[in-house]
Structures are given as structure tokens and as C-alpha cells.
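Entry 14. Ran structure prediction on the chain below.
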Amino acid sequence: MSAGTGVFMVSSNFSSQLQRDKNVLGQLSMAVEKLSIAVNRLPYEPFRDKLNALNAASAEVDQAFASLETMTAITTIGEDVTVALEAVRGLKELADQRLIVFLEKYQPLVADAAQVFLFVGERKILDFYTFDIAPVKRGYLTAKALPNTVAFLTSLETMNDTLRRSIKTIEDQFLIIDAVVVEASAQASQLTVVMLAVILILTLLLAFLLANGLARAIISVEHNISILKDGDLTNRSNLTRKDEIGTLSANLNQFMDTLTTTLQEIQHVSQANVAMKNSLVDSTSDATAAITQIGANTGSMESQIHLLDEKIAQSVELVGKIGHNIGDLNRKIGEQLEVNSHSSASVLGMVQSLDQMRATMLKDLDSVKELVQVSETGRLVFEEANRKINEIPQSIGAILEMADVIDELAGQTNLLAMNAAIEAAHAGEAGKGFAVVSEEIRKLAEASTDSSRHIAASIKTVVATIDQASKANERTRVTFETIDTKIQVVSRSLDQIHGSLSAIQNGSQEVLASIEDLKNRSESVGRSSGRVGEASQAIQEVMDDVGRISSEVTTNISEIANGIQSIGGAVRQVSELTTVVGQGSARLDEEIQRFKLS
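Output, C-alpha cells:
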């Protein structure tokens, strides 16, 4: 069909060129007629216009003769046309010679008009015969102007004769050329019809051969697809065609190779996913156990702190007693000499009280050390659980990548199914079976897309829950650090109290040893009593700080307990989502097992 169209276009183009060449001859004839009209109007034109119209017509004739050189198609149809065109071209030289002579005869008339007429611009050549000339000008008119006018009119007649013969020659040659062009056009039309008929026959024959080969190729492709619909991916097409069917067969083979590779990779990934799920379950169990241990440790810490509060209350009471005793000592300094024995007993009681306080403080120090160890153990267990939880998004990222791969493959499968359906529609009846297979492939691709999207949505929920757990873990970590700091402060405070009590005990021993010398050292006892009062005030302030710190520790431990409960809920939710992911992986593995792979 393309060849026939090309032949028809070439024939039509050749006919169009012949018609354009004929139009050039027609334009030349019209230009010569315009020149003849301009020549004959010159005697009636005023001298002011001179040769304007004649020059324009002459330029148009020159352009028309120049157009003869652009005629290419008409010169190839016969010798008669070439001879006729040469005859027409020969007219230009004769016309140019006659025009030169004609213009030479016209120029003297302009000078004669300037001598004869007063207003030259309004006068014409014929006015030399019709206008009333002044007597002084008549001699010049008779001697010069009229002979020049006669010579011009004679040249005008000669020019007219040349132009008429030129027009006649052009018309005669045009008729010759037109007859040859008509004959050539008829022959070209006949040749075109014959060539189109031959091309049509060849086209039908070629179409039959192509249709036969196409049908065999489609049957082969349909056979391969009929095997593919049962899940057998081991068969491949052997077509070596270079057309669309061959391309479709190659694309189908490539698709089956890609699908086989993808399904094998999905199998490996599914197995790895199941193993990862099991590992995640184990990690979740460890995290649950660790959280339970942290909760138990937190309860123990809370009990220890309540015990510490009781000890602090006892210490405050004892410090109050010390202050009361110091007051009594100050009041009775003046009576110290008279009540030496009574003072000795009081000092002994104070020493005993200090021993009791020191023993209590040592127990408090042991409790604080145990609290530090429990807090450190809880922090280590919490960091291990947090590390386990942070490892979960890495595994989930791999699962998301697999879901994206499944979605992308499903999209490509859907696109191939659509292309196969279009090709089946083009094949007509022979492609109905192929269209059914394409529809099944498209449904499978859509199901794969939905599954991958459900998996991605579930995994995103898991990731969001893990992010919340991570944030809660961060707050818990900060709380543990705060508890450690507060416990260290309490430990240092108790060390200071212990040191103060040791100093008080030593001082009391010195007081007891110096009772015998109280008579001579009353002032010294007074100063020592003042120092003891100051130490008692400092102990009171320290004990107030210890009570405040103990309250803060209790509050922080309550917050830790709440955080541990949140973490436990998040871990349980992660465990549930892990079960959902495992079920989806099992379903995916079952679907993949339906395919037969090489």
C-alpha cells in the first residue's frame, strides 16, 4: 500500500508540475498582450507619465521569459515540446531588439514637445497633429517634430506587428505543448493504474503470507500461555520472528524468566521472613521477661525507699532529742560542778543514743548501696530491652522492601497483562484464549498488589508502635539517670551524716573522759556545747534534704512503674503484629508454591 501510495503521489506530482509549466506559458502570453496594450497606449499618454506603464509591462515580460527556465517537467515529455519552447524563447531576442528601436524613436519626441508646447506635462504625441501650435513654433514642428513623430508611429506599427506575431507564436506552441502534455498525462495515468494493480496483487499475496505466518505464531504463543495459566513456568517459546508477535514471544519469555526469578527470591525472602518472625517472637519474650524483672526491682526499690523514709523519721527524732539535750546542757553548765554525777549519766545516755544512731545510719547506708545496685541492674536490663526493640525496625525495613518489590512486580505483571489483552483483541478470534489468560494474570497481579499493600500497612502500624515504645524507653532512660543521680546524692548525704555522728561520738567520749576535769573546764564545756548545737542544726538540715530527696525518688519510681507498664503494652502489641506478619508470610508462601519453577 505504501508503494501504491508513493506511485500515485509521484504521478500526481508530475501532473501538477506539467500544469504549472503550462501556466508559465499562459502567463507569458498575457504579459506580451499587456506589453502590446502599453505600446499602443503610448501615443495617448501625457508626456508627464513618459514610459511608466511601458517599463512595467516590459519588466513583466522579462520575468515571464525568465520563468521559462524553471520549467523542468514539461521538457522531459518529448522532442516536440523542446522545439516549441526554443521557438518561444527565440521571441524574446526579437522583441528586445524591436523595443530598443521603439524607445529610441520615442526619446526625440520628448525634446520636441519641450520646444513646441508651453506645458509639456499635459501634452501627448498626437497633439503634434491636433493642437494649435504658435506660429513661431510651426517651423520647428514641420522640420523636426512631425518627421520624428512619423518615424515613431512607423516604429510603433513595427512593434505591434512583432508583438502580434509573438502572441500568435506563443499560442501555436502552447497548443502543441498542450497536446503533448495531455497525451503524456494520459500515459502517466495508465501507467499509474497498471502499477497500482500490480502493487495491489503483490500486497494481497504478501498479506496472505503474513497472515498465515502470524496465525502460526499466535497459535504457538497461545499454547505457551495455556501452559502458563496452570502455573507452569518451565516452558519457553522458540519463535525467532522479528515482528510484533516475535517481540511479544520474547517479552513473554523474559517475563516468565523474571517471574521465575522473582518467585524464587520471594520464596527465599518468605523463609527468611518466617525465621525473622521467630527471632522477633523470642526477642519479644525476652523483652517481656526483662520488663517483668524491672517491675519487680522497681517494687523492691519502692519498699526500700519507704523503709528509708522510716529511718529518716527516726533520725530526725533522734536529732531533735540531741538538740533538746544540748539545750539542757547549756542550761545546766552553771550547775555542772554540783551535778557531776548526773552529767556523767547524761553523757553516757547521749553516747548510747549516738551509738544507736550510728548503727541505724550504717543500716541506711547498706540500704542505699542495695538501692544503687538494684537501679544499675534495672538500667542494664532496660538498655538490653531497648536494644532489642531498636533491632526490630531493621528487620521490618527489609520486609517493607520486599513488599515494595512485590508491588512493583505486580504492577509490571498488570501492565504486561494489559498489553497481552490488547494484542489478543488485535488477533480477533484467534486471541480469545490469550485474552482469558491475560485477564487471569491481571487478577493475580491485582491480588498481589492488595496483599503487598496490606503487608505494608500492617508493618507501618508496627513501626509506629515501636516508635512510641522507643520514645517511652527514652523517657524511662532519663528517669533512671535521674534516680541514679538522686541516690548518689542520698548516699553522699548519709556519708556526711555518718561522719558527723562519728564526730559527735568522739566528742561525747571526750566529754565523758573530761568529766573529772569539769570543774576547771566549765567554759570549755560551754564552747563545746555551742559547737554541738551547730552540728545538731546542720544534721537537722541534712535530714530535711534527705527527706525531700526520698520523696522525689518515690515519685520517680512511680513514674518508672508507669513507663514499664507502657513498654509492656507496646511489647505485647509488637508480639501480636509479629503473629499477623507471620500469618501473611505463610499465606504468601502457600501462593508461591502453586507455581512450577525450573
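The chain has two domains: 2-210, 258-592. Will compare against last week's run tomorrow.
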